[in-house]
From TrEMBL:
Pfam families: RmlD_sub_bind. Gene3D superfamilies: NAD(P)-binding Rossmann-like Domain, UDP-galactose 4-epimerase, domain 1. This is dTDP-4-dehydrorhamnose reductase. It comes from Vogesella facilis. One of its GO terms (molecular function) is dTDP-4-dehydrorhamnose reductase activity.
Length: 299
């Protein structure tokens, strides 16, 4: 069975990848103490010692606002590390699955973004992820780059869990209503990754390259919050937030260090048509995520 490296295994995507990929090979899931992605020398030494046949890079510097002041670290993890992995994969005939973000786009217009649209990141985080994509492509390894958006999982921190936590303790919440995207469960992204890996293990030659992976539809952060909180009300969660306690606000009323794209919906038709996959609506994806969170709450 192939040896599969999963970086970022303690994150919400990495957690789901361990579930989804465990039947395909022997997983290697080093923590930060064992694998320092900020050091090219340490990363290459680890790869030389372990020699994985598949590299699944779910690690990323995702502190979008903090990245504005930690530029060097963001670029080391999001750009230099993927480039080093891709170079090693090319030299050692390994497969690389790498994940990127809707934040590589500037969010202008109201048309879903395709894989070949021009990237114009607005933030250090988005720029570092775009440089990582370019480094992966330039290395010449067999690779899939999966761009996704607004990831949420049962493990780790995310917007959905934050809204549920705040709704249980606050009487008013103000949420941005002029940034649009698509919530994507980490479990869905992991399952799509498993599909691609299964195909590659069965037949080496594949239509490698970049694909968008997200749920279908479009929502704002405010509408997303309202939907999650509504599910909690229906399920009888003890919420402090009254029915009129959730208030929509413009981005200008919630200033942040890093600029976010106003419209970062991803067009996923290429993935669906190429691999015959059907992606769920964002509401269905969030319902499934909430059902898992609700079951855990009830014990």
């Amino acid at each position: 069975m192939p040896r599969i490296l999963i970086t970022g295994s303690s994150g919400q995507l990495g957690f789901e990848l361990q579930r989804a990929l465990c039947l395909f090979g022997e997983l290697r899931c080093p923590g930060r103490q064992q694998l320092n992605l900020a050091s090219r020398q340490a990363l290459l030494a680890w790869l030389d010692a372990e020699r994985p046949e598949v590299i699944v890079n779910a690690a990323a510097y995702t502190a979008v606002d903090l990245a504005e002041s930690e530029v060097e670290l963001a670029h080391a993890i999001n750009a230099a590390a993927p480039g080093a992995m891709a170079e090693w994969a090319a030299a050692n005939d390994a497969l690389l699955l790498h994940y990127s973000t809707d934040y590589v786009f500037d969010g202008s217009g109201e048309t879903a973004w395709r894989e070949d649209d021009n990237a114009k990141p607005l933030s250090v985080y988005g720029h570092s992820k775009w440089l990582g994509e370019q480094a992966v492509r330039a290395a010449g390894a067999r690779h899939f780059i999966l761009r996704t958006s607004w990831v949420a999982g049962v493990h780790g921190n995310n917007f959905a869990k934050t809204m549920l936590r705040l709704a249980a303790s606050k009487e008013q919440l103000r949420v941005v209503n002029d940034q649009f995207g698509t919530p994507t469960p980490a479990s869905l992204l992991a399952d799509v990754s498993a599909q691609l890996l299964a195909r590659t293990l069965a037949e080496r030659e594949q239509p490698y390259g970049s694909y968008h992976v997200a749920t279908q539809g479009c929502t704002s952060w405010y509408q997303y919050a309202a939907y999650v909180i509504g599910l909690a009300r229906e399920a009888g969660w003890p919420l402090t937030l009254p029915g009129d306690g959730l208030q929509p606000i413009p981005s200008a009323d919630y200033p942040q260090q890093a600029l976010r794209p106003a419209y970062s919906v991803l067009d996923c038709r290429k993935l669906q048509q190429t691999f015959g996959l059907q992606l769920p609506s964002w509401q269905q994806g969030i319902r499934q995520l909430f059902a898992t969170l609700d079951a855990a709450r009830r014990g």
